[in-house]
Design goal:
conserved putative lor/sdh protein from methanococcus maripaludis s2 fold, alpha+beta, 9 helices, 23 strands, 3 domains, elongated
Amino acid sequence: MASTTVPKRRRRIRWQTIALISVLILITLCVAGVFIARRILVGTTDGTAGVITQVVTVEQGDLTETVQVNGILEPRDRASVTFTSGVRVRELLVHEGDVVSAGQVLARLDTRDRELKVASAIAGLDEAQRALDKLQDGPTKVALAQAAAAVASARADIAAADSEVRPVDVAIARTRRDDTRQRLTDLQAGLAPDDLKAAEKQMLAAQDTLRQSQDAMEHTRDSASQAKTSAQQNLERSVKDLVHTQRAYSDAYWDWDYVQRTGRDPRNTVTDPNTGAATHTKLDDYQIELFKRTFEDATDALTVAEKGIQNLRDAYDQACKDEISQVAAAQRQVDATGRDIEDAQRTLNIARTKGVAAAILDAQKNLADAEKVYTDLVNNPQRPAQRAAREAALLEAIANEEKLKAGPDPVDLSRARTALERARADVATAEADLNDAELRAPITGTVVDSTLKAGTLTGSSDAISIADMSGFLIRGQVTEQNVALLSVGQAVQVSVDAVPDGTFRGKLTRVSELPDNQGQSDPNAAPGSSGSAFGGVYPIEITFSADDKRLRVGMATTATIEILSIPHTLIIPLQAVEDGPDGPSVRRTTGVAGSDGQPTGDLVPVTLGATSGDRVQVLSGLAPGDQLILPQITFDTAPEMAP
């Protein structure tokens, strides 16, 4: 990095200028001394001008040029992260000195409220999506059918209202009114009320039902017991059959076992006439197959018998359960019928205690209702208003049906889409807030400072600072004359003042396109002027890695950047070049001295290349070892005084 302050850079420039002037003065003095010495040694006596001729040799070597930048060591990268101000830190996961990786969680906030907000936002998003889908899908068949039914119903109401009152309706209403009036007259004359008669009928019906339930229970008990007895008898017969089947299986098993072991008939024997000994008959293959089939048939029969026994046992168990459940169900029916009798008895008691007065009141109410119905049929002043209401209902039903058929309203769709986007934004905001509850490392490095504390509210200055100490960064500046010669990726040699015995290899990682605002300025410029004696300076950055434990952040450094490197090329002093008729030329010696004793030379055109300081590259026209004559330096000499 270059000097970190402008005054320091200016002092360095002044000293460089003073040194340059000193060198020029020294060279001038040396040249003058040579002239004087030559004059003393080979001086002229005719009062003519003195001449010094210099001859140089064309050399082959390396043409290099470097730029040096001063700076200090900084971490390769650094970052500072923090929560928003005024939030509570739940836990702090790192401390100063810890090494962290990029993306590692450093601290967390209390996230319960934020998680609830995320869940609520997701629920709102689902609801908005369903609402939009419902609009886009259009009306269902059920909704269309309901709308059509509403239209048909409204039209039917209007058609019914449009028709005149039928004489039969008037006659029915008149008959109902007269019957109700006669019923009131009968009650007032002392006849029993209708509810008392109904209660007595209900009581008789309940008693009949109880008798029927009791008879049904006896029938159920008998039939269930008979079914259980039948199942038991079948099971016993099957058990007896199983015994016979088992015996047959045992005989077949042992016969087949004997046949397999001996190959002889287990039941038939023959007697030897000579010895009188009895032996079992030898069996052929067919007879052996018969014994085998007998055993297999006995095995199948036993399996069938055992399964039959199991089925009959299950049937018997089921018959027992059915007897219990059916009898219990019949008993419950009897109990329910008994409760119905109790209810009928209570109703009868209430009807008997209600009295004629209450029945007369009910009859009077029924008479008033019947007279109102008769009056509405004969002369109803509200009929026009009712017709208008029915017509309005028909128009509303038709409008609803047409709206459903036309599909969703564009305005409703726009609102639904807006609501969906708003819900998505709410979800994104809630999730972002939840993600912000975790503080993550933006880079890999070492925690160098942390002011966060678990359980406390964050302040505006609280943060966790991380530095990448795997390498170092050097910031510097170069002049406008050198910036064009630099490019990212160039190799850099770094020397550290505190480590004088070593150099480090780095790389140029940044060359700014813009000059630094605090560039080199003319110290003699007028205040407020934009003049610059030295031009602008451009920031650059250099990185390097080193395992040297002596290196520390803040150490002063000098970075050397090689901007020109041409190996094994012809090099001559820039002073030797002059303008010739064919372009750049030099004077090459001929090897013959002139009349004045000075070397002579021919003007040779040359092709020049790169320039470094006072030396220039020669691409063609010369060869290594050629002698060149530099431009002569002349000076006037005074005539010598006679002794």
